[in-house]
Amino acid sequence: MKSGIKTLAIWLIIIIISVAVLSGLLNNSDRKMNYSELIQAINQGQVSEIEISSDKETLYVTEKSGDMNNRVKEVTIPSLDTFMKEISENIASRTNYSNTR
Predict the structure, then answer these.
(1) Whether 31 contacts 47, CB under 8 Å
(2) From 4-8, 29-33, 52-56, the region with the lowest mean pLDDT
(3) Which residue stretches of the chain are H helix?
(4) Greatest C-alpha distance within the chain
């Protein structure tokens, strides 16, 4: 009888740990964005704020729309220089476009 209770307890612990890990992974995916999604969101005007982390490898992006709890997304960037160059080119192309109209 005691070995049956131990087996049941072990299975319960395994199930609880599995549910906790899966829950954490699912919640994290809602708060992450990849680099190409970030560039696309910027191009479409869907970003209201970008905060650069102290390690200069992670950005915290606030989207203009969406659920208040899921508006801030974490993005890992290749390098800050690459990101800034790409954003500068984006801004320049918008400025040139609006000046030629």
Answers:
(1) no
(2) 29-33
(3) 2-30, 35-43, 80-100
(4) 83
- Residue 68 and residue 34: Cα distance in Å, rounded? 20
Give the containing element (helix H, strand E) for 50: strand 47-52
Beta-sheet strand order (sheet of 58-63): 47-52, 58-63, 72-76
What is the tens place of the pLDDT at every residue in 36-74?
A: 888 888 888 888 888 988 888 889 988 887 665 557 888
Return the structure tokens found at 27: 């919640």
Cα angle for residues 1, 19, 62 (degrees, 5° grid)? 165
Quick one: residue 28, left, alpha or beta (phi over 0 = left, psi -120 to 50 = alpha)? alpha
Other C-beta atoms lying within 10 Å of the C-beta of residue 75: 20
Write the CB contacts of 49 (distance below 8 Å, at least 6 apart in sequence): 61, 62
